[in-house]
Design a protein that fits this description.
Elements lengths: L1 H9 L4 H34 L8 H24 L7 H19 L5 H23 L1 H7 L6 H38 L5 H24 L2 H8 L3 H36 L6 H12 L8 H13 L9
């Protein structure tokens, strides 16, 4: 994502196009840096715990944050070297570094399998977005895009909802699959709310990325909006669309993961059936009667004198 953003920015010789390209490319680079920082920090954490002894909570958090910061500095260098004299690339570089550092801090979470599943789910969301981008020319007319601006805006809104829904579905399924794989590999499981948290993780990462873009990278978006009224409107629409997609991914991913883990939970046994089974097990077992003994007892009863029988 950083390589793509850098290539998109540097191919323009016009200053205005360079600014708008930077504003368009920054959100994707920020979200990718957030996931990359968390992933590298998880790798460092797994390397340190390879002998079965993991560092304490404080040391773990410091190391994870430091690994994310290292990734962020490398990503920031790629933007800062585009033009070291202007402030715009310094802002983008700082935003990318902050995103990777926050991602590294998230890797210090107590349950690394949850963070790892959320990172994988975020990558699944990115892949869904790329695939839908290739199919955009086919999907937009099917969603009602026509020759008018109103129909195109409406179709774009539906397209964003479809993108978020499919991304959330993929995120929920991928996170659940990886959480189950971690359970089989380690032999231990976590409570079901953590499955839901893992499914919500990709959406949460997108929300954090959007908040960083609007705060740390706000000056870049403002500068792009000053170019023209049209560009200002575009930036506002894109910002709202990104947040809406992130929220859709968050909720759909959460419910998908909850449904998936609910299907794997065993149903409680029937109390009456359990009681019957317990009674059957606890009751003494009687040996079957011998037919010959039954026959001898019947003959003895028939030959018994009548006077010896007691009156009712």
């Amino acid at each position: 994502m950083i390589w793509s953003a850098r290539a998109s920015i540097t191919r323009h010789t016009n200053a205005e196009m360079e600014v708008t390209s930077t504003a368009y490319a920054m959100p994707g680079a920020v979200s990718a840096s957030l996931v990359a920082g968390a992933a590298v920090a998880l790798a460092v954490r797994a390397f340190l715990a390879r002998n079965g002894r993991e560092p304490g909570a404080t040391v773990r958090f410091v190391l994870a944050t430091g690994a994310g910061l290292a990734v962020g500095l490398l990503g920031a260098l790629a933007f800062f070297t585009i033009n070291t004299e202007g402030w715009i690339y310094a802002v983008v570089a700082g935003t990318v570094a902050a995103a990777a550092t926050i991602g590294g801090a998230l890797a210090g979470f107590r349950y690394p399998r949850v963070t790892a599943a959320a990172c994988a789910g975020a990558i699944a969301v990115f892949l869904v977005r790329i695939l839908l981008t290739f199919a955009q020319d086919t999907l937009l007319p099917a969603l009602g895009a026509g020759d008018t601006a109103a129909s195109q805006a409406s179709a774009a809104g539906y397209f964003g909802f479809v993108q978020g829904a499919l991304g959330g579905l993929a995120a929920g399924l991928v996170t659940h699959r990886l959480m189950r794989h971690a359970r089989r590999r380690s032999g231990t499981d976590v409570k079901w709310p953590l499955y839901a948290l893992a499914g919500a993780g990709p959406g949460l990462l997108l929300v954090v990325s959007e908040l960083l873009t609007r705060t740390a990278g706000a000056r870049v978006l403002e500068l792009a909006g000053k170019i023209s009224e049209l560009e200002l409107t575009v930036q506002q629409v894109l910002s709202g669309t990104r947040l809406n997609i992130a929220l859709v991914v968050l909720f759909v991913g959460t419910f998908t993961a909850m449904i998936a883990v609910g299907r794997t939970l065993g149903s409680p046994a029937d109390p009456s059936a359990s009681a019957s089974a317990t009674t059957a097990v606890s009751a003494p077992t009687q040996a079957p009667a011998d037919p010959e003994e039954i026959e001898r007892a019947a003959r003895a009863e028939d030959t018994e004198p009548v006077g010896s029988q007691k009156d009712d």
